[in-house]
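hey so i finally got around to running the thing on that chain from the lab meeting. sorry it took forever, my laptop kept dying and i had to restart like 3 times. anyway pasting the input first so we r on the same page abt which one it is
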Amino acid sequence: MIQLPPGAYRPATDRWGSFKRLSASLPEGSLAVVDRRVARLHPTLIPALKARKPRAVVQLTGGEVAKTFESLEQVLAAGLSMPRSGTLLAVGGGTVGDVCTVAAHLLKRGVRLVQVPTTLLAAVDSSLGGKGAVDMTVRGQVVKNPVGVFHYAEEAWLCPELYASLSETQLREGALEAWKMVASLDAELFRAYARRAPSLERMVKDARRLKESVCAKDPYEHEGLRRVLNFGHTFGHVLESVSRFELSHGDAVGLGMLCALDVGRALGITPDDVAWRVEDALHQGPGVLGRERTAELFARAKIKDVVALLAADKKAGSAGELRMVLLTDLGTAVVRDVSADQWQALWPTWTRGERP
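ok and heres what got predicted. didnt touch it at all, straight out
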């Protein structure tokens, strides 16, 4: 039997239970990286880790400020003495998970990674799929995720007690990412969600199942099949950047989905009734922010700055065209090249907070 190297693609292994119970399986001498706010909110977490005699416990401040080369260096320095058989445990939201994924890939050319998502957003999305990245500043603008790796976690721990301290905003952010996958991948499930919102655990399991079904077919994005997971991300990342990350990733993806529905309608790819139905469901279900928030943020930016941010996006084509995920129906999507003229025609209505 061939032994897979650390970080290679493997089907998702999810373990549900309390952190204390699951942490009993952590090998001694592991490196743990913990969001310091999570540690403060859950005071039994650090003692449970220290009972496993870790090599080090590094605490980072979560949020986009964590995704820097400075944070990455801090984690790498703490793990310098790890053997290649060692384990890096990432306890936090998506930003802590991102930094740890890159660190796990670089330490000893790859160590074992265990993800413990502590936000709903990380649980439904970023802790699954192997991707990790850090941000860079280009011409004074923060560009999300231009430097990154693929390094799959060996397992994920889903600990319901960690989600009990989440705010309504954090729950909305995670729900928007989950509904993104449902709207673009599973029409029947979308209709069920629109009739009755799912429980948190059900939503996490559904979202992880849908994402895993895509990643299994294209684990390293060689085939382009994973692009469907970027529904809402093209303009979502722009909105995050122009807000200087006051706007959370989940809320940005929600607004980015509205932009994608507008682009799809304008190009004749997304039927009107599908666009209206999805937008209405996003308001009624997870509670997407209103279009006035998009208008407020775009009012801060010059269109040339938006063009520059889109050009720096890793999903852009070689000629600068946008490769956007657009719905063709409920549960189905395509990737289409969108010219600057096509999306800029929508700019006046977006800056007025109106639906084109």
